[in-house]
Design a protein that fits this description.
Layout: H1 3-30, H2 33-54, H3 60-78, H4 82-92, H5 101-106, H6 110-124, H7 131-141, H8 147-154, H9 158-174, H10 184-206, E1 210-211, H11 217-233, H12 238-251, H13 277-292, H14 299-312, H15 321-334, H16 338-352, H17 354-362, H18 375-386, H19 390-403, E2 405-406, H20 407-419
Parallel strand pairs: 1-2
Length: about 425
């Protein structure tokens, strides 16, 4: 690899790290997230032209911000807007400070960067956007992922992702979404939108809904990074720590969740020595922090507590299934859903016997939300197999295999169906 190639890789790595802070700072200044991203991209192009000749500067983030600052000034002057903005600011200065030369000098201040980053989080995950648009915009602005990377991660076309991002920016501009952290009375509702986006990104990485891969680790890593940022920026919000705890503990199993050829390995069959103990410790610490903050225990903290039961068990046989069943009951009260009830069926089956678990699962048979959900017949198949009802179990596994869109999971379910032909 040439020196120029090494420099280009270094530039891409730096931009991935710095882009969110860069766009956040520029958005505060120009009050337009789309324009801020364009300015950040202009700074990246300048780095690609300059750094191979001069080397990567000691403070690349500052260099990128200074370059973007000058591009912004040039742009405003070219469009003959600078004078009008300055005049407007002169009238409004006492009421609301906004774009000014001094703002550029404050952008690199650590406290200002953190404030701007938090504001950008709430813009990218604003409820005015569709869930798909929020996910795409968050990964683009805060994750620094390219459009093609997002498209590959979610198995959609690059044009589809690009369209979602463009529409999201236009929607934010049309809605005049302010660049601010929501007021305290609005924070809980808006924060739930932010955490939902991060949770969706993590889940898609942890158990891909479609395609040939069981997991997409890059998405898990990105969600964890974003979750840690939010928890760091909002240290008194227990659900932010609850979500981080959940993701840390779940991610700790990643190395054990697939076999040598990428095939799925189910939780109870995993080699627990391959679980990442550092991530488990970090997850348990985040869970403890969420619990210390008090208040109503939220859905992410409860899910993290369930994950912690698995993490603390040295073997599958030592798992505290009765506690997990109780935690799922609590989760059903906080965030009722058929999927939560299906998970409770698994826990009840493990804690109190397959017959009781099957009774819970059978109660969901007519649930419209689960009509095409492959995990309902999968769970029923497992419970029926444990009850020795092999023929019925085989039919359920085949039904689940037909419903899933993930090739790895389909192969696993078909194998489980074959096992019922000659049960042990």
């Amino acid at each position: 690899m040439t020196a120029t190639g090494d420099t280009h890789r270094a530039i891409e790595a730096v931009f991935r790290i710095e882009s969110a802070r860069l766009i956040a700072g520029l958005t505060r200044i120009v009050r337009d997230v789309g324009l801020a991203e364009e300015l950040a991209q202009d700074a990246l192009v300048a780095a690609l032209e300059r750094w191979p000749k001069t080397g990567v500067p000691d403070n690349p983030g500052a260099w990128l911000m200074a370059t973007a600052k000058h591009r912004a000034i040039d742009l405003l002057r070219r469009q003959e807007r600078l004078a009008r903005k300055v005049e407007t600011l002169g009238h409004e200065a006492e009421r609301e400070p906004t774009w000014a030369e001094a703002d550029f000098e404050r952008v690199l201040d650590t406290e200002v960067i953190e404030d701007d980053l938090l504001r950008l989080v709430f813009i990218a995950c604003h409820p005015v956007l569709s869930t798909q648009a929020r996910v795409a915009l968050t990964l683009r602005l805060l994750g620094g992922l390219r459009t093609d990377e997002i498209a590959r991660a979610f198995l959609v076309s690059e044009a589809t992702v690009a369209q979602r991002i463009v529409r999201a920016k236009k929607t934010l501009a049309a809605a005049r979404v302010p660049f601010e952290v929501p007021a305290r009375e609005e924070l809980a509702e808006r924060l739930s939108s932010v955490l939902e986006v991060i949770y969706l990104v993590f889940n898609e990485g942890y158990a891909a809904t479609a395609g040939d891969d069981w997991m997409r680790p890059a998405l898990c890593e990105e969600a964890l990074r974003l979750g840690r940022i939010v928890a760091g920026l909002l240290p008194e919000e227990p659900e932010a720590h609850g979500l981080v705890a959940l993701m840390e503990i779940q991610a700790s199993r990643s190395a054990a969740r697939t076999g040598p050829t990428g095939e799925p390995v189910l939780l109870l069959e995993q080699n627990r020595s391959r679980w990442d103990r550092l991530l488990i410790r970090r997850g348990l610490a985040a869970l403890a922090r969420a619990e210390e903050l008090g208040g109503t225990v939220g859905s992410y903290a409860l899910q993290a507590a369930i994950a912690a039961c698995h993490a603390r068990a040295r073997t599958a046989q030592e798992t505290d299934w009765p506690r997990i069943a109780v935690l799922y009951e609590a989760l059903a009260q906080v965030a009722p859903s058929p999927v939560v009830e299906l998970n409770r069926a698994v826990a009840v089956g493990m804690a109190f016997g397959a017959e009781q678990g099957l009774a819970v699962a059978d109660g969901l048979a007519e649930e419209p939300a689960l009509a095409g959900y492959h995990l309902l017949p999968s769970v029923r198949g497992d419970l029926l197999a444990r009850l020795g009802r092999a023929a019925e179990a085989r039919e359920e596994f085949l039904r689940a295999a037909a419903l899933t869109r993930n090739a790895r999971e389909r192969a696993l379910l078909e194998e489980r169906a074959r096992e019922q032909e000659f049960p042990a």
